[in-house]
Amino acid sequence: MLDQSNAERTLYGFWLSPYMSQVAHFLSETGLNYRYERVSPFQGSTLTPEHKERNPLGKIPTLSDINGVNISESQAICRYLARIYPEARRFYPIDDPLLCAEIDAKNDYIAFSIAGPFFNWFVVSAYFPKAWKLNVEKEAHTYSLCSVLMTKMWLTRLVNGSKMEPFLFGNEPFLPDFQLFYTLELSQMFSELFEMPEMHLFRDDAILQKFYYAMCERASTREILMAKESELDVTKNELFGGFGEAYLDKHIDRGILEKVFGHTV
Ligand SMILES: N[C@@H](CCC(=O)N[C@@H](CS)C(=O)NCC(=O)O)C(=O)O
Q1: CA 257/CA 265 separation, integer angstroms
Q2: Which backbone phi and psi does 236 adopt, to 5 degrees?
Q3: Which residues contact 78 (CB under 8 A, 6 or more apart)?
Q4: Residues 206, 129 within the same domain
């Protein structure tokens, strides 16, 4: 049994990650202290033996809690926090199964239809051609346009099927609001970083803008966005610098990519 009195809660990841930002935000809103330790896939650090010991799936974020538990996957971490710490239950009320069912439904919808596809969108359309300098500009652009089409359709359904006053369930945010916020936030940041205006998911949507700015008014949001900003130059250098060498060359088979794209990449 771990000695809890000396243990520190540690969040592993990096600030550009919307998934880590969401967990950090959740911790901050609930007043749970944590130490941040940077683990960046752009340097290959998510796939080291040390990190795979924490998360065999080789992803960040991972939270090492004071009870010795290592837990990964942003949504699972937030639900874990609500189950263990009563302070987190206002965002995921474990004692109210009916409300939790509605919250889960929205959260799963966002993960499956919006945030998940958004991940593939930026990998194929931005990382491949721009960060990894692969010769797939044309295909990446086509993929990007298909992604805009689909993502905007699912987002419109989400907005129409929710209260949006200004949050999904009314005037207080719950778990899926954080997930939605960090997806929108990344869409804004990546549309600038990779010069892809079509990737911005809420520029033309008044309801989503109201949602986004309402979330920005929270003290914890400002704290997270500032942390992100303070690490941006480091992250940009890694993203456009060593990422290909540290990750792509080691973990992705170019031969398969060439078969996928039908030409040298
Ligand atoms: N579904 C996961 C996504 C986590 C994820 O994809 N994290 C990225 C960084 S933003 C990562 O670890 N990438 C390294 C890799 O996929 O090898 C979550 O919600 O936590």
Answers
A1: 7
A2: -60, -45
A3: 22, 23, 26, 88, 91, 92, 175, 178
A4: yes
Q: Which residues contact ligand 1 via a Cβ below 6 A?
A: 17, 19, 41, 46, 58-61, 73-75
Q: Quick one: which of 97, 207, 101, 102 has its CA closest to 152?
A: 207
Report in angstroms the alpha-carbon separations of 146 from 38, 141, 150, 166, 261: 34, 9, 6, 29, 16
Same structural domain, 67 and 118: no
Kindly indicate the confidence band of residue 233, based on its pLDDT and cuts at 50, 70 and 90: very high
Burial class of residue 225, CB neighbours in 10 A (0-12, 13-18, 19+): middle
Q: Please give the distance, rounded to the nearest whole angstrom, from the Cα atom of residue 18 to the centre of ligand 1.
A: 9
Q: pLDDT (tens digit, 9 = 90+) per residue, 130-154?
A: 999 999 999 999 999 999 999 999 9
pTM of the model: 0.95
Q: Is residue 262 a part of any domain in this protein? A: no
